[in-house]
Fold:
Amino acid sequence: MTTYDAGDVTLHKVREFVWEIPATGEMGVPARVLASESLLDEISEDKTLEQLRNATHLPGVRNHAICMPDGHQGYGFPVGGVAGIDAEEGCISPGAIGYDINCGVRMVRTDLTYDDLRGREEELVDALFANVPSGLGGGGIVEGDIDTVEAVLDRGLDWALEEGYAVREDLAHCEDEGVRYDSDPAKVPQKAKDRGKNQLGSLGSGNHFLEVQRVTDTYLDGVADAYGLEEGQIVVLIHCGSRGLGHQVCTEYLRDIEKAHAGLLSRLPDKELAAAPAGSQLAEDYYGAMCAAINFAWVNRQLITHRTRQVFEKVFDADWETLGMDLLYDVAHNIAKKETHTVEIGSDGRPASGGDATDTEERELYVHRKGATRAFPAGHPEVPKAYRDVGQPIIIPGSMGAGSYVLRGGEESMDRTFGSTAHGAGRTMSRTQAKQDYWGGDVQDDLEQEHIYVKAQSGATVAEEAPGVYKDVDEVVRVSDALGIGDKVARTFPVCNIKG
Structure:
């Protein structure tokens, strides 16, 4: 058997691109890493494997804890991590979801071509930067009050439709149609609401961005046609989340869970995995608050879409419908959802995995996807009708200097990854190290030599997001495609990018 030695962790090769940490000691299930050896070399450089192994100690974890090919160290649970945890006998863990709840990405198609845009890149990037709020702190497209925030938390994109910021097709092309009806705004802390009311419709900072791209390649012609994508086409990628509101929800519930469920916490190898047992009041309260934050993030991206359409109207002197600026899809990551999946059980009818499993059954799980994307295949009832025959669109951003990808949910995703795949390229360098190794102005100059125009609130932000701090997105997507969890449909390349 081929093994990979990563210091304190030894992985066994199960099949091509699938590496397993066997269940030993208090591990509830084995852990699996989906990666090529070159990606595994990068994944093993930080605490990702240790965090993945620790995650298997969470009560109720089923089948395997999984690390996607873009995995890297996070808070307690690795970014790029997926865990299906029993919704009756398990738990829910804010650290396995993330602080930026429903940080996600959406793609807007256009009927413009790269030739239509060439020579106007600086005009467009300046207009977008001037009109789409970005950076730390407050300032958004909608300066709402608490009542507005409550409505957004409760109704998600239904609110945006009612207020004229969306059209019906936007909802139809968004995961869950842009609303979690199990949200409970009353469970969102007041401080979170206060932070959110001044940030509705804003990119924020860090790795969040709005990027104008051109489609360079298509791979599955029938699927690309269904998605409305063709070579030379201009598209817009929007990547952001729930801003300070989501961060505050995570912060306060982590603190409350650590206090209320100290007994469970004492049995876990890392306090950052603090979890509320399924059925407990805190589990129910956090789930309702998290779903409300998910709604907030969807509205946030929708408001940026609305403003982006307005900018394109001015720059290209045509209304956005004429420009064909339709939403392709909006996918969420940093979430947990109650979903029904097939789990392995042993001869005693209890959960099992690997060689101990003798049968399977359907169970409702909290599927934690932290820095991972839902990837449901063709025919799944939760895939929008427009794409049900071909599979759910998946959007995987690369860095400012590399391509991004559109995939479709693969046929193997439900069996192998609880219907999930990677969410991006994945960092290989901390933000602190990036600022030491790169100078923002130099990065911008280098990108402009490649006809990529970047504008940001500070040079430090550009340095933190330099292309060299990310994994090879081509390799990440190659692994996903080879495993059948997310199939390549199209590749894009940056033209203009604005950041906080």
